[in-house]
Amino acid sequence: MSPQELTAKEKQELSGQEKTRPGRYYQPDVDICEFSDRLELWADMPGVSDQDVQVTLENNLLTIEGRVGTGLYDGLSPLYTEYNVGNYFRQFSLHESIDANAIKAAMRNGVLELVLPKVEAAKPRRIEVRVA
Amino acid sequence: MALLRFGSDFPIPTLQRELERFLRNPAISLGLSGYGAYPPLNVFENDHGAVVVAEMAGLDPSQVNIGCQGRTLTIRGERKPREAGNGVAYHRRERSFGEFSRSLQLPEDYDLEKAEAKYENGLLIIRVPKAEAAKPRQITIQAG
Q1: Closest CB to A34 among B38, B51, B91
Q2: Test mutation, A79, A108, A111, A114, chain B, max B CBs within 10 A
Q3: Strand-by-strand arrangement of the B64-69 sheet
Q4: How many helices (H) and strands (E) does chain B have?
Q5: How far is Cα A125 from Cα B21, in angstroms, rounded to an integer?
Q6: Is B114 on the interface with A (CB under 8 A)?
């Protein structure tokens, strides 16, 4: 089998929610996977530095927001464009109980990497069945 | 051609409007394969040369090859999935992975030999300076 060829997806513009900051917002593509003790979320936010990302968890609502810098475009005029640029925003309501104080976030090459540890009570436990 | 220039400290809607104006409406032909190809590219210019910006988050820069031959610039590489391991349940899987290759042809005014690339916050930025011969020159008038 030949390796899979990567294709570009059109960026999903955020609609239905108005932000106080003007301009378009886009929905970052995410992977979310669940481990026994944690959730991990990876979100593609190209153009966002580690200084310009904000993650909040309030009432089980996880919000991620990334702001793109415009400094790169200073003094440039476009000749040819295939994508637009904008800030990123996405929210998830979490069913799992997450230990908000233990959340770890890192930005690596434009990808937000979030580790959301479950609170002790939410971790699967094996209950011993005792023979009567 | 009248192109609006971004000043410093410009707000994001100005950038978005300008990018929108050129979407599917190129000012120059770059021999590109078109939309849906990865990575998506934006091409700009300033007085010094051309700037190619590719949105490609989460790549290992050592897995990206940038080559040039004649007037053609080629970006090639692979975006590898993370290894999550066994017994992991994916709730969402929207990010895509695989191999990619894209080429663009720059006009002769640019000197690909002197191109420089950097990978920053998931953006590949390639700066190609203008060829010496294409730079604006002042011609002095000699006194008769």
Answers
A1: B91
A2: A79
A3: B64-69, B72-79, B98-105
A4: 1, 8
A5: 57
A6: no
Q: What is the pTM of this model?
A: 0.84
Which residue from A2, A5, A6, A23 is spatially nearest to A14, judged by alpha carbons?
A23
CA–CA gap between residue A5 and residue B100 (Å, rounded): 6
Q: Nearest CA of chain B to the CA of A38: how many Å?
A: 10
Name all domains of chain A by residue range, CATH numbers in brackets: 23-74+81-120 (2.60.40.790)
pLDDT tens digits along B58-100: 999 999 999 999 999 999 999 998 877 777 888 999 999 999 9
Calpha distance B16→A38 (Å, rounded)? 37
Q: What Å distances lie between residue B8 and A67, A102, B22, CA to CA?
A: 17, 39, 20
A110 to chain B: which residues are within 8 Å by CB?
56-58, 121-123
Q: Is the ipTM of this complex over 0.85?
A: no
Cβ neighbourhood burial of B7 (10 Å; 0-12, 13-18, 19+): exposed
Q: Which residues of chain B does A36 touch, with a Cβ-Cβ cutoff of 8 Å?
A: 87
Distance CA B38, CA B136 (A): 34
Q: Is there a contact between A78 and B39 if contact means CB atoms under 8 Å apart? A: no
In order of their start, the domains of chain B are 33-81+98-135 (2.60.40.790)
